[in-house]
Amino acid sequence: MMNRDNPVWLITGCSTGFGRELAKLVLARGWRAVITARDPSAVADITAGHEEQALVLPLDVTQRAQINDVVAQAKQRFGRIDALVNNAGYGYLAAIEEGEDDAVRAMFETNVFGLIDATKAVLPIMRAQGNGLIVNVSSIGGLASFAATGYYHGTKYAVEGISESLAAEVKPLGIDVLIVEPGPFRTNWAGPSIKQSATHIDAYAATAGERRKQTAARSGNQAGDPVRGAQAIIDAALSDHPPLRLLLGKMALEIAHKKLDFMRHDFDTWEATTLGADFPEAKS
């Protein structure tokens, strides 16, 4: 469980979106925060008037030495870290066949390995405290997949699997894990932050190509409100029993239920074949 007595939050990726709104809400409550971004000048405005409780530091989560430095400075300044929010990440549009190797690997470095490295750097502090909360910002795209975002889904499915195992490992140590799964939100995700392959294969125009267009058209008009989403994360963090998964937004809930129904249909339809794969049970 997270300590609620003036907790210290360490948040990655605070220049835009959830990270930015969450940092603002944390400071507004009078809590302490380590606010990070690749370009610290992008978050300078958040901390105006909150200098005593805020520490602004440069952080690119693909740089392990920088992660270690941020964690060390956080410990030196505040003496503890109560909540780590692994928020830094971005999307990439491409059909699987169109994916460009360097770009795909770079996204995995940020979305998956950056999250792992930040978590590993903070865990010794939380273990020594005997409490803490790790918030991993996944996506509804960590539960369900669509054309054109397969590689992004790959990063978020990885976050989901790692987070489930982590939760089982750290729960007895007093540390909770919260996986946040937003649907479409009015952040920069589908706009300035998105990357995409320069390769376009005509055969995928009606699937991945069409979804690329839809993603661009929807940017700025999504139903999700980042301020309300950030408040929902705080509400879950303050719960005596935080959920392992927190869906954000009506569309996320609808997509999650559809995915469950889709999986159940396949499981039930093929049940006889599934059970037939075991050795026959010995007759008594």
**What would the principal axes of the Cα set say about the shape?**
globular
Rg from Cα: 20 Å
Order of H and E elements: EHEEHEEHEHEEHHEHH
Low-pLDDT stretches are none
Main β-sheet, spatial strand arrangement: 3-2-1-4-6-7-9
What is the level 1 CATH name?
Alpha Beta
Q: How many domains, as an integer?
A: 1
N-end to C-end Cα span: 49 Å
CATH architecture: 3-Layer(aba) Sandwich
Helix percent band? 40-55%
CATH superfamily: NAD(P)-binding Rossmann-like Domain
Give me the secondary-structure category: alpha/beta
Number of strands: 9
CATH topology: Rossmann fold
Strand content: 5-15%
The number of helical runs is 8
Account of the protein in words:
- By secondary structure, the protein is of the alpha/beta class.
- It has one domain: Rossmann fold (3-Layer(aba) Sandwich).
- The chain is 45% helix and 14% strand.
- The protein is built from eight helices and nine strands.
- The strands form two sheets. The protein has a seven-stranded parallel sheet with strand order 3-2-1-4-6-7-9, sandwiched between helices. It has a two-stranded parallel ribbon with strand order 5-8.
- α1 (17-28) crosses α6, α2 packs parallel to α3 and α3 packs parallel to α4.
- The radius of gyration is 20 Å and the shape is globular.
- The mean pLDDT is 95.
Key traits:
single chain, 284 residues, alpha/beta, Rossmann fold, seven-stranded parallel sheet, two-stranded parallel sheet, 8 helices, 9 strands, 45% helix, globular
